[in-house]
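DM from R.C. (forwarded with permission)

"hey, sorry to bug you on a friday — could you get me a structure for this? deadline for the figure draft is monday and I only need the backbone to look sensible"
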Amino acid sequence: MSFDLHHLFLVFTAYIVGAASPGPSNMRIMGVAMHQGRKPALMLAAGVISGSFFWGSMAATGVSAILAQYAQALVVLKIVGGMYLLYLAIKAGRSAITSNAQFENEMAAAPAVSSFSLYQRGLLMHLTNPKALLGWIATMTLGLGPQATPVTVAIILAGCAVLSVTIFCSYAIVFSTAPMIRGYRRARRWIEGTLAIVFGAAGMKLLFSRT
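My reply, with the result:
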C-alpha cells in the first residue's frame, strides 16, 4: 500500500506542477477573467477541464499511447494547435496596440460571446495541444506500474479531475476579483502584449518542434 501511496503522491504532484504552471490555457483564462469577468472565465475553464478529462481518459485506456506512436496524428495536432495559438497571439497583439479609448468603444459595439462559444474555445485549445496528450501519457506512466489495478487507475483519474477543476477554476475566480480587474484595466496593453508573446512563442514552438 505504501508503494501505491508513494506513486499517487508523485502523480498528483506532477499534475499540479504541470496544470498550475502558467501556460496558454491558464493565461487565456486569466485574460478572460480580468477582461470579461468570472462567468465567462469559468466557461472557458470548463472547456479546458473537459479537454483535460478527455486526454486523461484516453491515456488511462492506452489509446493516447497508441496515437503517440503515429507521427501523422501528432503532426496534425501540432499544426492545428500551433495555428490556433498564433491566432490568439494576433488577437492579443491587436488589443495591445489599441488605445484604451478605442478599445472601450470596440468592446461596447462588439456582440456578446455566448457561454457555449467560450466553452468550445477552451475545449479546442486543450484538445489541439499535443503536450496535454503527452503530459497525460507521462502522468499515467508515472503512476501506473505493471501491478496497477483498475481501482488505481480510477483513483488517479478522479484525483486529477478534482485537481483540474480546482486549479483552472481558481484561475478564473481569483483573476476576476475587483482588484485584479482594476489592475487589468490599468495595465491592459502590457498584459495583452505579454499574452501575445506567450501565445506566439507557444504556437511557433508547436509548429517547428520535432517532437
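R.C.: lifesaver. The two ends are 36 Å apart (CA to CA).
me: no worries. Residues 178-208 form the longest helix (31 residues).
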